[in-house]
Structures are given as structure tokens and as C-alpha cells.
Amino acid sequence: MGSRAGDRLLNVNGLGISLDRRESGASINFISHAHTDHIAAARSGNILASDETSALLGAYRIKPKKLEDEKGWIKLLDAGHMLGSKQLFVSDYDGGIDYVYTGDFQMQKSAIAKQIQTRKADVVIIDSTYPRPEFRFDDREEVEEAMGIWIRQKMKRGIVLFGSYPMGKSQELISIINGFGITPVVTPRIAEISAMHNSLGAGLDFLSRDMDSERTDEALSGNFVGIVEAGKLREAAAAVSAAHSKRVYTASATGFAKLYRMGTDVQFPLSDHADFWQSVDYLNAVSPSLVLTYGGSQDVFAENLAKVGFKAMPFGEFRQDGLKTIEARWHSAKRL
User: Fold this and answer.
1) CATH number of the domain that 51 lies in?
2) CB 3.0 to 4.6 Å from 45: which of 5, 65, 249, 335, for a disulfide?
3) Domains: count for the chain
């Protein structure tokens, strides 16, 4: 089914809301968090985002033009994904329907983000990153414990380097590594973003030559833990090994470690997303009449949610215009 103008917006109380995308005709542009795949509309006007997300957009040299007028029918709920990540909760006064859009979220407690909030809603628009029921993450505490054991073992023999995304995941890694009593050395880009996190109260302890050359040089004189951009890990490992004449052990920490080989000595399945069954737990808590799956795997996710008892359909096939109740919306959908 093809999309019509406005179909990719959430239309509530006479206003069109874009959801982590840049869409024509949007009156409000919601940005759930500061990862690059969610900030396409960040340079548009009428941005709705948390104060933390707005500040972190400065890492991309963006100063968002935020929504000037508060809307009493809009609330932002913590999403548990990264610092400042939010869900969007809106009440449609005309239709008497409450919507919530999750963006990226997770149910397990993050080392850096606030715990997710859940609130009853009629319609949930839910992230589709991990749409299959056979995919299940390990307990985060167990993963972090395994990371600590491995890091301590390898530091006795050489240098440990993690490859990570500069925004969000690197700061989570710093926090976890701090919990092992270790201060990691990070690249200038990761240091810049981590300093932004600290200005927002994150309390991260890290070293960078640009910020504290004396302490950094002292750390580099022995065995240390470093964090570099994921795309530069192999190059950095070779350079560090040559400069220090030591063995360098490489690691990754991402939910995709459950699916793919990461090309590192070890990979830890540490995700900041919900897996399929965490999504089910979330939906059970919110108890919606209709679930709209959102993102690249929305078709697969909707099919699998339907198999476990939810009324689910892809957001791309949902039509708001002319439908007065949740049951009418559901029964008029092509998938039933």
C-alpha cells in the first residue's frame, strides 16, 4: 500500500508530529535521543526533545530551535536508551485516544540512562530494531560481570581497546569500566562528547591527552583500557601495539554481537535496545488496544507480535483520517 501525504506523521489535535524523521508538513518535530539515525529533523524548527538531547546535539554543531509553546497534551517519558532519551506521550482530545511513541528503548537498567517509564496508552508506536522472538539478550549484570573479569585478566598481559560508537555507548562503557575501578583513556571525539555528558551530571571518569596530558601520559606508560571509535579500532590497535611494544586485546560491546562477528578478540552482547521479549513486557505494561511497529523491520515485528496475541500492524499501513475509535481503526486496516 503506498503512502499518502501526512501518513508518516502522527496527526493529533490538528497538528502533525514527525517521529525521529524529517517529514514535510510537520508542525512538531520530535527527536527521541541524540543518535545520528534519529536526528534528521534537528535543523528544522519546532523541535521537541529533552534538555539533555538538545544539549548533546551540540556534538554535531546543531543548536535546535525548540518548540516555543508548551502543549498540555504532550508528555515526555524516560526511555532507558541513553542519556536524555525520551518516549513521546500524546493525548488526542478529539478522538479520546492516548498514543505513545517509544523511539529506541530498553527495559533493563542502563549504566547511564534513567530507567524507562511506562504509562497506559491506547496506541503504541514501537521501535522495531529487534523484531524476532528467537533473539533474546543476556542479563546485563551478567554481561558486565563478564566484561570485568576479561578486562582484569587481559590488563595483566597487555592493553585493552574497545571499539564503540562515540555517542551514548562510549559513555556507557566508561561508566561500566569506572565500576571496575579503572579510568579508561579515550579519543578526543569521545572525550568531547563525554565532557558534554558530565556537564549534564553523568559523573564519568576518563582520560584524554587533550584534557589532561599529565595523567593520560602516566596511564599510557603502563597497561591501560582505551576506547576508540568502532570504525578505527583495527587501525588503532596496530598503532598502539607498535608504539608500546605490547599485545593489544580488542573488544566490542553491542547487542549486534548476538547476530554478527565483530572482528574483535571478544564481543560482549551489551545492548541499549529492548529485545523482542522485553518489547512484549513493555507492551503488557502499557496495555494498548493497537500496536504500530516502527522502523526498518516493522513488517516482521508486527507479524511476530500478532502471533503472541497483540493487535499489531506496521505504522506505514496505518491510516488515521476518518477513523473514530481504536476498534474502527483496527478493523478497517488491510491486514485483518
Assistant:
1) 3.60.15.10
2) 65
3) 2
User: In this structure, what are the phi and psi dihedrals at residue 48, rounded to the nearest 5 degrees?
Assistant: -115, 115
- Higher pLDDT pick, 324 / 20: 20
Does the pTM exceed 0.70? yes
CA distance linking residue 111 with residue 151, whole number of Å: 18
User: Whole-angstrom Cα distance, residue 97 to residue 125?
Assistant: 13
Q: Is the predicted pLDDT of residue 336 greater than 80, yes or no?
A: no
Quote the CA–CA distance of 225 and 150 in Å, as a whole number. Answer: 12
pLDDT surpassing 80 at residue 130: yes
Alpha helices in the chain (DSSP H): 51-56, 140-155, 169-178, 188-199, 213-220, 233-244, 276-286, 298-307, 326-331
Same domain, 164 and 201: yes
Task: Please state, as a whole number, how many other Cβ atoms lie within 10 Å of the Cβ of residue 153.
Answer: 11
* Contact present, 79 and 53 (Cβ < 8 Å): no
